[in-house]
Amino acid sequence: MSLTVDERWDLIDRISRETVTVGEYKETLTDVIGEITIKPMTGIPVVIASLYLFWSIFGSFAGFFTDGFFVKFFDQYWLPWWQLHFPDTWEWLYYIVVGDPLADNCLEAFGMLTSGLFVAIGVVLPAIFIFYLMLTLLEDVGYLPRLAVLIDTILHKIGLHGYAIVPTILSLGCNVPGVAATRILETRKERFVMMTLLAIFVPCGAQLGIMQQVIPETMGLVLLYLVIGYFVTGFVLSRIIPGKSPEILMDVPPYQKPLLRNVALKIWMRMREFFTSAIPFVLLGVLMVNVLYLAGFIQWLSSTLSPLFVYWFGVPEATVGPLIAAFLRKDLAVAQLSVIEMTWYQMVTAVVLVSIYFPCLATFIMLLREGWTELLGSLAVLIVVVTVYGGFVHLVGILAGVA
Amino acid sequence: MRLGDVYFALLGAVTLACGFADLMVTLSGEYCSWWIVEVPGDMFRGGWGGLIVLFAGLFYLSGARNLSEIHQLSKVMMGSVLIWLIAGCDIFARITESIPGGDEGWFNSMEGFLGGCAPPYFPAMLLLPFSLVVIYYIHKVE
Questions:
Q1: Fewest CB within a 10 Å sphere: which of A18, A209, A378, B63?
Q2: Chain B partners of A27 at a C-beta cutoff of 8 Å?
Q3: Is there a contact between A69 and B106 (Cβ–Cβ < 8 Å)?
């Protein structure tokens, strides 16, 4: 039996009349608050406040553990212990495992067990933990769907819908689950635009943590450049990539108290991912960068690419090495940049370049899992964006008289 | 609820003034301290945080009429929530900054910790106790 659309609606009406009982509805304060946080006029101040809460708690918590305890432990006890006890029979092995024998802090030593562990445990772990805790709370309270509704109009300008905010926020923790979360978007076009934007413009928690550590004063400017780049590139991509960006219907649940068990479970699952995939990548990243340095490959690449970096991007030649290392770990690349002598604006440009430059190895593998076409397309966009946007940041510096 | 209307209108005006002060001091780029009040001058706490205090003031002012009406009360409540949020972040930051001992040891001494938590305070922290009055009105309505 086939029914026309009108007949189906009639049938739905009949069934609902017979089965649904409508009682008297009394609006509660929670309902009204839910309404307030979804209307642009009152909802946008709440978005601004929620983001403030997010970053303030993130900065205080990560700073408490990193600056308060881990820096002291790693610089005063861990590094000297390794420098004293690791046998220096093979100079290359010492360089790979412990790093620079003259370094007096773990950020500059750049050994696998010194800088590698310091970054993974001392910097990234507290940052990732508090990030996922805050994200889970916002999610479980019921605020994320409201944020998605509020941001829907803006994201439509770049060919995405409100739920694209979920992979974007997840990527601020780690790009890997962010790329995986793009599957909630319906069309291939939406997924491609989202993945490309995540890979280029969204810094991960590790990178944010290390940026907070080494460039706290200029971090805001770096993030501003990334936000502008995210929207401008998204706008351009949404117009040149063929395909559809359909409308969606969103279910906005009422506000509710988060359940401790759910919060704990979600954080555990996300942290487990970090322990099993990110920490080995950090250590592997340091190992490979050190091997490439020892083999002279990075020095060769630095001299080959230096005209582009020095004249087009306006950064010192020495930044090429960290940029190559960024392919393995972007957070480590920022740490390496912090010890290079340059002006504050060159530092901003270099950190923006690290962020928009090639996605880290883990993200690269995730993109590959989504398909070769997506990966190659994203890389093509990335090369164009890095060249154009990097030059643009330099140009802004020249015009402002700071570059 | 007439008293409540007047109270939140006054609180709204003071909150709005605090938000303005935060923004003005941020624009000047200096920290400003007077008696037990310290107005932050950095972009994050003074600029971004000041903007939120300003929004809180606007929420109070737009809701401070006929508080028995649930939509009006919800605006006042939102104003208080924004104050709790900013003040909560300030208190959390103070506590986390006061616990580590710096160069002198792993943990701060009790005097050092209490010194870190002592005045002057940012405006949102001083507005916090006054914003809690909204809880009474919520209970009254519910």
A1: A18
A2: 70
A3: yes
Integer-rounded Cα radius of gyration of chain B: 17
Contact with chain A for residue B71, Cβ under 8 A: yes
A290-328 burial, b at 16+ Cβ within 10 Å, e below that, comes to bebbeeeebeeebeeebeebeeebbbbebbbbbbbbbbb
* DSSP code per residue over A97-156: HTB-TT-SSHHHHB-IIIIIHIIIIIIIHHHHHHHHHHHHHHHHHTHHHHHHHHHHHHHH
Residues of B whose CB is below 8 A from A46: 78, 82
Residue B31 has pLDDT above 90, yes or no: no
Residues recorded for chain A: 403
Give CA–CA dist A189/A393, Å, rounded.
28
Nearest CA to CA, how far is B55 from chain A (Å)? 6
Residues of chain A with pLDDT under 50: none
SS3 category, B121? strand
Residue B106 has pLDDT above 70, yes or no: yes
Cβ neighbourhood burial of A6 (10 Å; 0-12, 13-18, 19+): exposed
> Would you state the pLDDT for residue A327?
67
pLDDT tens digits for A73-105? 999 999 999 998 888 777 888 888 888 888 888
Cross-chain Cβ contact A29/B74 below 8 Å: yes
Contact criterion met (CB below 8 Å) for A362 and A277:
yes
pLDDT in tens, A318-328: 888 777 767 66
Q: Which amino acid is at B80?
A: S
Count of CB contacts below 8 A, A vs B? 78
d(CA A67, CA B10): 41
Residue with tokens 């003040």: B87
Return d(Cα A173, Cα A135) in angstroms, integer: 9
Place of tokens 């960024």: A326
Are A158 and A136 contacting, i.e. CB atoms less than 8 angstroms apart?
A: no
Contact B78 A46 (CB under 8 A): yes
Q: Which of B78, B81, B94 to mutate to test the interface with A (most CBs of A within 10 A)?
A: B78
Of A142, A133, A140, the closest CA to residue A250 belongs to A142
Nearest CA-CA partner of B95 in A126, A70, A64: A64
Which residue is closest to B77 within chain A, CA to CA? A33
Cβ contact B96–A63 (<8 Å):
yes
Across chain B, what does the average pLDDT equal?
91
How far are the Cα atoms of A100, A216, A302, B81 from residue A147, in angstroms, in the given order? 47, 27, 43, 17
Listed in sequence order, the residues at least 6 apart from A52 whose beta carbon sits closer than 8 Å to its beta carbon are: B48, B49, B52, B85, B86, B89
Ramachandran sector of residue B65 (left: φ over 0; alpha: ψ -120 to 50; beta: rest): beta
Q: Nearest CB to B74: which of A33, A61, A64?
A: A33
Q: For residue A52, what are the CA distances in angstroms to A265, B46, B48?
A: 26, 12, 7
